[in-house]
Automatic annotation (TrEMBL):
Residue span(s) of domain IspG TIM-barrel: 14-254
Top-level lineage group: Bacteria
Cofactor(s) needed for function: [4Fe-4S] cluster
Organism: Edaphosphingomonas laterariae
InterPro entries per record: Dihydropteroate_synth-like_sf, IspG_bac, IspG_bac-typ, IspG_C, IspG_TIM, NO2/SO3_Rdtase_4Fe4S_sf
Pathway as given in its UniProt record: Isoprenoid biosynthesis; isopentenyl diphosphate biosynthesis via DXP pathway; isopentenyl diphosphate from 1-deoxy-D-xylulose 5-phosphate: step 5/6
Enzyme Commission identifier(s): 1.17.7.3
An annotated Gene Ontology molecular function: 4-hydroxy-3-methylbut-2-en-1-yl diphosphate synthase activity (ferredoxin)
Presence of the UniProt keyword Amino-acid biosynthesis in the record: no
Residue sites binding [4Fe-4S] cluster per the record: C272, C275, C307, E314
NCBIfam families from the UniProt entry: ispG_gcpE, PRK00366.1
Protein name: 4-hydroxy-3-methylbut-2-en-1-yl diphosphate synthase (flavodoxin)
Residue span, IspG C-terminal domain: 269-356
Length: 377
């Protein structure tokens, strides 16, 4: 389905950097990130978690490196990963040097927090030598003491000033492959800070509402904050911070992007909240279908409506649709057209097979189109 003019989002222009082989900014697709929560020193557990995040669609994954044991395991982790790995460094610059040498695609480090200018220079040299980008991560919960004294409390101006101070340290060493985040757990504070920063710099911006909360509360806060910024055209890469498994962060990130028509991955489910008119248990059906269809990465749409009030209309706009009917018989729509009925028994399995077949059809068509384009060249 094409994007209507009233849905167009004019993205902020930014220069592009590379995080490994993934472009960030400069018109590249908005990437979805997450972060592992296993002890990094346990390479196997961390790699297992990375695998789950990759299967969920993560483009970039961050791994904390608080000690030597972590940076020692980091090399094995990077080799095993299929996506670029960011090394999260806080205050110890030597961890940044070790992570860069171990294959980090990006260093998450605030140069003003690691000590002398000589240390900043060492980190920049290591980043340049190893092709690492750097992410500056300003957080309202850990603003510099002088800025808190100057402004009295965390505020957009304080977050932006902190970011600009860190940027200058990198620019003074002729380093420009950086992206910046100005996160806060307060949605209003974060959005205001990002909007101010977007006017002040041309680098890619990493969006996030930090310490957002659990799966439900954190999803809502993140959708409001990140969604508002993306709608305004601001943001080149996102991380949804949840007190939940990291693969859930990835799924929520994609749902935000899908809702805005910015990027699609997997099955977009359109479903009703259900009522007494429903011809089948919509809530339980959707729960089961979402679980069964997690493995589908092909962008497509599925409508699940309990009755004929809105069902046919929604089905006309989706690849596959089902509308509840009477006596346990429900109408199935393919490409918006009524096609056949399905009984209650085996309905979920039937829909799963239809979705899998449609995904295979779409992938085959895409492959044929790519082959034709290559042949034409």
């Amino acid at each position: 389905m094409s994007i209507r003019p009233w849905r167009d989002i004019a993205r902020r222009e930014s220069r592009q950097i590379m995080v490994g082989k993934v472009p960030v900014g400069g018109g590249a697709p908005v990437t979805v990130q997450t972060m592992t929560n296993t002890p990094t020193s346990d390479a196997k557990a961390t790699i297992d978690q990375i695998r789950r995040c990759e299967e969920a669609g993560a483009d970039i994954i961050r791994v904390s490196c608080p000690d030597v044991e972590s940076t020692t395991a980091f090399r094995e982790i990077v080799r095993a990963a299929k996506v670029p790995i960011v090394a999260d460094i806080h205050f110890h610059y030597k961890r940044a040097l070790e992570a860069a040498d171990a294959g980090a695609a990006c260093l998450r480090i605030n140069p003003g927090n690691i000590g002398s200018d000589d240390r900043v220079a060492e980190v920049v040299r290591a980043a340049k030598a190893n092709g690492c980008a750097i992410r500056i991560g300003v957080n309202a919960g850990s603003l510099e003491k002088d800025l808190l004294e100057k402004y009295g409390e965390p505020c957009p101006e304080a977050l932006v000033e902190s970011a600009l101070d860190h940027i200058k340290l990198l620019q003074d060493h002729d380093f420009h492959d950086y992206k910046v985040a100005v996160k806060a757990s307060d949605v209003f504070l974060a959005v205001a800070a990002y909007m101010q920063l977007a006017e002040a710099v041309d680098c890619p911006l990493h969006l996030g509402i930090t310490e957002a909360g659990g799966l439900i509360g954190g999803t809502v806060k993140s959708a409001i904050g990140i969604g508002n910024l993306l709608w305004a055209g601001i943001g080149d890469t996102i991380r949804v911070s949840l007190s939940a498994e990291p693969e859930e962060e990835v799924r929520v990130g994609y749902e935000i992007l899908k809702s805005l028509g910015i990027r699609t991955r997997g099955v977009r489910v359109v479903s009703c909240p259900s009522c007494a008119r429903q011809g089948f248990d919509v809530i339980r059906t959707v729960e089961k279908l979402e679980e069964r269809l997690k493995h589908i990465s092909t962008p497509m749409s599925l409508s699940v409506l309990g009755c004929v009030v809105n069902g046919p209309g929604e089905a006309r706009e989706t690849d596959i649709g089902i509308t509840g009917g009477g006596n346990g018989r429900h109408m199935v729509y393919l490409s918006g057209v009524t096609d056949h009925h399905v009984e209650d028994a085996g309905m979920i399995e039937h829909i799963v097979k239809l979705v899998e077949a449609k995904a295979a059809e779409i992938e085959a068509a895409n492959a044929a189109a790519e082959a034709a384009a290559e042949a034409a060249e």
